TrEMBL record, chain A:
<dbReference type="InterPro" id="IPR019546">
    <property type="entry name" value="TAT_signal_bac_arc"/>
</dbReference>
<feature type="domain" description="4Fe-4S ferredoxin-type">
    <location>
        <begin position="41"/>
        <end position="70"/>
    </location>
</feature>
<dbReference type="GO" id="GO:0030313">
    <property type="term" value="C:cell envelope"/>
</dbReference>
<feature type="domain" description="4Fe-4S ferredoxin-type">
    <location>
        <begin position="139"/>
        <end position="168"/>
    </location>
</feature>
<feature type="transmembrane region" description="Helical">
    <location>
        <begin position="270"/>
        <end position="291"/>
    </location>
</feature>
<keyword id="KW-0408">Iron</keyword>
<keyword id="KW-0732">Signal</keyword>
<comment type="subunit">
    <text>Heterodimer of a large and a small subunit.</text>
</comment>
<dbReference type="InterPro" id="IPR017896">
    <property type="entry name" value="4Fe4S_Fe-S-bd"/>
</dbReference>
TrEMBL record, chain B:
<dbReference type="GO" id="GO:0005886">
    <property type="term" value="C:plasma membrane"/>
</dbReference>
<dbReference type="GO" id="GO:0009061">
    <property type="term" value="P:anaerobic respiration"/>
</dbReference>
<dbReference type="InterPro" id="IPR051817">
    <property type="entry name" value="FDH_cytochrome_b556_subunit"/>
</dbReference>
<feature type="transmembrane region" description="Helical">
    <location>
        <begin position="285"/>
        <end position="306"/>
    </location>
</feature>
<feature type="transmembrane region" description="Helical">
    <location>
        <begin position="201"/>
        <end position="225"/>
    </location>
</feature>
<feature type="transmembrane region" description="Helical">
    <location>
        <begin position="47"/>
        <end position="68"/>
    </location>
</feature>
<feature type="transmembrane region" description="Helical">
    <location>
        <begin position="352"/>
        <end position="373"/>
    </location>
</feature>
<comment type="similarity">
    <text>Belongs to the NrfD family.</text>
</comment>
<feature type="transmembrane region" description="Helical">
    <location>
        <begin position="385"/>
        <end position="403"/>
    </location>
</feature>
């Protein structure tokens, strides 16, 4: 065995330290809170500007090479579609959809675009047991279908009901969701197809932190126009896509009861007990065994002396 | 079998035949009957006809699922990604199989050899329950052939399901080892038996650790869905401990239920030791179940207090919650306590079935019924129900096949005695 030199030792500990630093960051699972990559991109959605033309839906369909929908994209009857008493949602054939709402506090209907919100600390990612999801430094939450087993825990975990599943596939069913046009656009710094296609400039693409400043400025500069809240700034730890509205967010179909902390924070208490049980239980129960059986026969089966005892 | 016994036919229960010869494997499989006798008793058994009908309908549907995808047998719902296969198959079967580690602990760790006559039944109940939970999982997974990915290929160690996967896999191996002693006796492999017996304490402690964690982890899985599970069934602080604690009465009651069915329908296979001890053991198990149940009742109430959810009790969901807690936790608890006090074995058995029903209700409530309470409720697809019933029938068949043969309900007469 060669002696461990000081240099090797230092290199080793540096690598170990780096590994320890890397692991939690990669998994977005660090102690404390992860507030997103500093240069992560985002989209600010101003609901007051949306007219429900569904151009973004059409652009997404082309960009992501999705199948043609049953009704054309200029058909507004889809806004009246209801499934189980619910408005439309994202599916494996439509990564983004626009819904119409009739808010009580406004005279006009309000349209809202729904797609993956690209959370800073995504619930889908942290619930995945094969690490199929990844939050890229550019801000997208992408998915690797090559490792997906199909447990659909991410669909359970997503607080926005976004991931859909190709149930009809026999050999290769996978999750389908908006990936921020990562492969074709975001990687090169270009905005996603839906943002670019919007004729009303509902969506603004940029660095998340810059957009957040713009969002608050817009609220301040237009007193009375907006509700004083940026939906997605704090919700479930912050999302890459966030919203401005002129009506309370619950009237536009948003879930306003979501926790401010990332979903994974709910689970951390349980995950913390795991190593404790693993280390304490063996000693505890072996101890019980020794205490309970001291001086007694360890015989198995052939020891009938207790058979007549009453159980306690 | 009862009928055959009147003709003086004795089932295989010892290493050697009465005349001192070895049993052949074929003879062991046929329970020591001739082929005609064996087929005769299979046909006479009415349960076999019921099972045959279930298989005739259900097995084609299972094949249909693997040819025409999951979408063909479920509603393919994006809002209810987990249906009956996991809601019942995983979330109910696993707590009902907690018996293995409970009785293993009692006998091997606490040295309570007075529970020994039922230990193997409890271990087998655990093994089969877990095994079939995995079968349900395989039907439910989109790509079941990738089941080993979280073990060997791509790790997501921060996920609760990662822990469940690893623990169920490890615990299944532990249970196979624990039950293998019965199998080694049956095939006459004494060295294997001795080898496993030496490691019993280690295996049992491993079983406790793994059970604590994955029973709890099944509850913790729902911590990812704070807005989706109704607040009364959700507790970010206590979810895992609710699931773990309720698995204790669940597992113990399941053993009482199975032993009850066995003593009424398979008495020929039970030896005198099992028959004589069963009433006493039933009451003792019921005591354990009652203690577990009372603890569970209290921590359920504490959870409501902790999150200050009393206001929900006045709603429709609150009534449903009260029905579960009063009707399926408190009521069986009262019944069991009364039965234990007055040593009424029959009532203990009724109570045990009641507890099992209550646990199933609780898991279905958490996973399906109150899930998406703010959206809509979904009734599972008829094929989903058929497949779930069929897998359960396969479970019953396997269970009975093993009980008929391996020395679970009876003690194998070792070679030395002959």
């Amino acid at each position: 065995m060669s002696k461990i030199t000081r240099r090797k030792f230092l290199a080793g500990s540096a690598a170990g330290g780096a590994a320890m630093m890397m692991t939690p960051a990669k998994k977005a699972f660090a102690a404390g809170s992860f507030e997103g990559f500093p240069d992560g991109m985002g989209v600010l959605v101003d609901l007051t500007r949306c007219v429900g033309c569904r151009t973004c839906e059409a652009a997404c369909n082309v960009e992501q090479k999705l199948p043609e929908p049953a009704l054309p994209f200029d058909d507004t009857s889809v806004f009246d579609e209801m499934h189980h008493g619910q408005k439309r949602r994202t599916t494996d054939k439509a990564y983004t959809i626009v819904n119409r709402y009739e808010p009580k506090s406004a005279d006009e209907p309000l349209y809202r675009k729904i797609q993956c919100n690209h959370c800073n600390e995504p619930a889908c990612l942290t619930s995945c047991f094969v690490n199929a999801y990844k939050k890229t430094p550019e801000g997208a939450v992408i998915y690797n279908s090559k490792v997906c087993v199909g447990c659909r825990n991410c669909m359970i975990a997503c607080p926005f009901h976004i991931p859909a599943y190709t149930y009809s596939s026999v050999l290769n069913p996978v999750i389908k969701k908006c990936i921020f046009c990562y492969d074709t656009r975001l990687k090169e710094g270009r905005p996603p197809a839906c943002v670019e296609s919007c004729p009303q400039q509902v969506m603004t693409f940029g660095k998340r932190k810059d957009l957040m400043v713009i969002a608050h400025e817009r609220i301040k500069k237009n007193p009375g126009k907006y509700v004083d809240h940026v939906y997605g700034e704090k919700e479930v730890g912050g999302t890459g896509w966030f919203y401005l509205s002129n009506v309370p967010f619950e009237e536009a179909g948003f879930d306003v009861n979501l926790p401010k902390k990332p979903i994974i924070d709910n689970v951390k208490d349980f995950l913390a007990i795991v190593p404790m049980v693993l280390t304490i239980w063996p000693a505890l129960f072996t101890g019980f065994h020794l205490l309970a059986t001291k001086g007694k026969s360890h015989g198995h089966g052939d020891d009938n002396s207790h058979d007549k005892q009453e159980g306690h | 079998m009862k009928k055959l016994a009147t003709y003086g036919v004795k089932p295989h229960d010892a290493a050697l035949k009465a005349d001192g010869k070895q049993w052949s494997l074929m003879e062991k499989l046929l329970l020591g009957l001739t082929l005609d006798q064996y087929i005769g008793q299979v046909l006479r058994n009415k349960l076999n006809w019921v099972l045959a009908i279930i298989f005739a309908i259900g097995i084609p549907v299972i094949i249909y699922r693997f040819i025409f995808s999951l979408g063909a047998v479920t509603h393919a719902s994006y809002d209810y990604p987990w249906g009956l296969f996991l809601g019942f198959g995983l979330f109910c079967m696993v707590p009902l199989s907690a018996s293995g580690f409970m009785l293993g602990t009692t006998v091997e760790i606490f040295g309570r050899h007075d529970f020994e006559p039922i230990e193997r039944l409890a271990l087998l109940n655990g093994l089969l329950g877990y095994f079939f939970a995995v079968v349900y999982l395989l039907v439910d997974l989109g790509q079941p052939w990738r089941l080993s990915y979280p073990m060997v290929y791509s790790f997501g160690p921060a996920a609760v399901l990662f822990l469940v996967g690893w623990h169920v896999a490890t615990y299944l191996s532990v249970q196979v080892a624990e039950v293998s002693t019965a199998f080694f006796e049956w095939i006459g492999f004494k060295r294997g038996y001795d080898f496993i017996r030496k490691g019993t304490v280690g295996l049992t402690v491993a079983g406790i650790i793994l059970s604590t964690l994955h029973q709890g982890a099944l509850g913790a899985l729902f911590l990812y869905a704070p807005g989706k599970v109704h607040p009364l069934w959700y507790s970010s602080a206590f979810q895992w401990i609710h699931f773990f604690t309720s698995s204790i009465p669940a597992g113990l009651s399941m053993v009482i239920c199975v032993s009850t069915i066995v003593i009424y329908t398979m008495k020929w296979r039970c030896d005198q030791r099992f028959i004589d001890n069963l009433d006493r053991i039933t009451i003792s198990l019921a005591k354990g179940a009652a203690m577990g149940l009372s603890t569970y009742l209290i921590i359920k109430l504490i959870a409501v207090a902790h999150d200050n959810e009393w206001a929900y009790l006045a709603t429709g969901w609150g009534t449903w919650w009260l029905l579960e807690i009063v009707g399926f936790v408190f009521a069986p608890l009262v019944l069991l306590s009364y039965a234990i006090r007055h040593k009424l074995v029959g009532l203990c058995r009724v109570g045990a079935f009641w507890v099992v029903a209550g646990i199933i209700l609780n898991r279905l409530n958490t996973a399906l019924i109150t899930f998406n309470w703010q959206l809509y409720q979904e009734i599972p697809h008829k094929f989903e129900i058929i497949i779930s019933v069929t897998i359960f029938a396969i479970y019953v068949t396997t269970y009975r096949f093993i009980l008929n043969r391996l020395p679970i309900l009876y003690k194998f007469k070792p070679q030395a005695d002959e």
